[in-house]
C-alpha cells in the first residue's frame, strides 16, 4: 500500500511555516546565523581577540579603520609612544591586520631568546609580514637557513675572491663612466649589482650574469615588496577577494614560473653531469650545489627556495642604497673612510681579504649606524605564540596564536643604551667605531658593536635562534661594494638638496625612496 501523508490544515499554521519553501528558509537562516557566529564570537580570531583583551592597548579609543590608517602612516611614532608609555609591560598594538600584535618589553627579551619554535614560531609570523598568502613567498624554508649557516658562512674566507671578482665586474659594467657629474638611479643600479654578486655565489657565473635571470630576480623582489604594501593597505575583510587580483600579485606568479624555467635546465645539467660518472667532473662551488645536495639526491631546487634567497638579496640591496643616501649628504666621512680602506688594502697586498674587511672598522660603524636609523623593519622578532601560551615574568599572559614582536627601532634609539655618547636620534657614523676602540675596549666590545652583531641593543637582523643567517655574507658583500664605490666616486643628491632623502614607510616596512637619483663623478687617481 502506498504511504500517504496526512493532509494538513495550513490555514492554522504560523505564516512563515505555511510556505512551500518552509524547510529551506529555516535552513538558510540557520546557516546565516552560524556563519555570522563563526565570523564573530565563535571564530578563532574572535576568541584570540577576547583573550588578548586582558592586555593593555595603545590607542584603544580610535575606531578599527582609524587605527589601521594610523598604523600604516605612523607606525614608527606609535611604537615610540608605546615604548614610552609601557616601559615594563607587554601591550597590544593595533596593526593593519584584524588582530593586534603584542609588543614585548625589552626587559623580557632574554627570557624569550632561546624558546623553541613550539613556543614561539618564526615561520607563521614571517608569512604574515611577507603576506605570503598572496605573495606566495614560502617562509618555512629551513633548509635555506641551514645551508646559509652551515655552508655559506664558514666558507666566506674561501668565497671572498669570487665575490670580489663579481663586485669588480658589476662596477665595470653597471656604473656609467661618470667623467662628469652623472645622474644614477641608485636603487635599481644597486639592486642590479647586488643581485649579480649574490647570484654568483648562489647560482654560479653562467646564470648570475644572464640579463633575463637578473631582470626576473630583481623584479621578483621588487614585486614582493609592492604586493606586500598593497595587501597591507587593503581592509583585511576584502583581502581574500581583491588581493589575488592585484597586478603585482599576478606578476609574481609569472615571475615564479620564469624562475623555475631558469633553474630547471641548470639543475638538470648538473644532475646529468653527476650521473655521467665522469671522474673529472666537480660540482661548481656555489650554493646551488649545496642546496641540491641537501635535497637528498632528488636534485630539486624549487623556485620557492630561490625566491627566499632573492628576498635576502633585496634586503641587502635596500640596505646598500640606504648607506649611499646617508653618505651622499655627509661628505665629511669620505676622507676618513677612503683613508681607512686604502690603508687596509695596502696592508693586504691590494686584496679584499676576509681579515682586511674585518679591519675596516669605520666603514663597519657607518653601515651599522645607517642600519640602526634606517632598518628594513620598525619591529623585529615576530613570532606566533604556541599552544601553551606565553607566561611573562611579570604575570602577564600572552594567549596561543598571538603574534609577539620587539619594538626594535625604539629600543636601539633608547638614550639609556647611549649614555655618554652622541644623541641617539642624530646620525653619528663613527658611534660604533668609538665603542670598539675606546681605551679598555676588549674582544667583547669589538664583537658587540660590529655591523653583524645581534643582541639586545642590536636588533636589525632579528634576535635569537632565527636571527638572519645571511648577515655575515651580506656584511662582506656590502663592504666590498661600498668600499669600491667610495674609492672610485664622489657622489651627492641629484636634486641639489643637502638633507638625506626620506625613507618610504608603510606600517612596519621601511625602504629608501627608489625614485631618487644620486649624481656621481669619478675620482681622479
Ligand atoms: C642587510 C641585509 C639583510 C638584513 C637587514 C636582513 C634581515 C633579516 C631579518 C630581520 C630576519 C628575521 C630575523 C628574526 O626575526 O629574528 C632575517 C631572516 C633571514 N634572512 Fe636576512 N637580512 C639580510 C640579508 C640576508 C641575506 C643576504 C640572506 C641570504 C644569504 C638572508 C637570509 C635570511 C634567511 C634564510 C632568514 C630566515 C632565518 C630562519 O629561517 O631562521 N638575509 N633577515
Automatic annotation (TrEMBL):
Q: Which CDD domains match?
A: CYP503A1-like
List the SUPFAM superfamilies: Cytochrome P450 (SSF48264)
Segments traversing the membrane: 22-41
| One Pfam family here | p450
Q: Which Gene3D superfamilies match?
A: Cytochrome P450
Which molecular-function annotations from GO does this UniProt entry contain? heme binding; iron ion binding; monooxygenase activity; oxidoreductase activity, acting on paired donors, with incorporation or reduction of molecular oxygen
Q: Which cofactor does it need?
A: heme
Superkingdom assignment: Eukaryota
Q: Which InterPro entries does its entry note?
A: Cyt_P450 (IPR001128), Cyt_P450_CS (IPR017972), Cyt_P450_E_grp-IV (IPR002403), Cyt_P450_sf (IPR036396)
Residues bound to heme are 468
The alphabetized UniProt keywords are: Heme, Iron, Membrane, Metal-binding, Monooxygenase, Oxidoreductase, Transmembrane, Transmembrane helix
* Homology family: Belongs to the cytochrome P450 family.
* Entry-linked PANTHER family: CYTOCHROME P450, P450, PUTATIVE (EUROFUNG)-RELATED
> What is this protein's name?
Cytochrome P450 monooxygenase
Q: Which organism is it from?
A: Diplogelasinospora grovesii
Question: In the record, what lineage is assigned to the organism producing the protein?
Answer: Eukaryota, Fungi, Dikarya, Ascomycota, Pezizomycotina
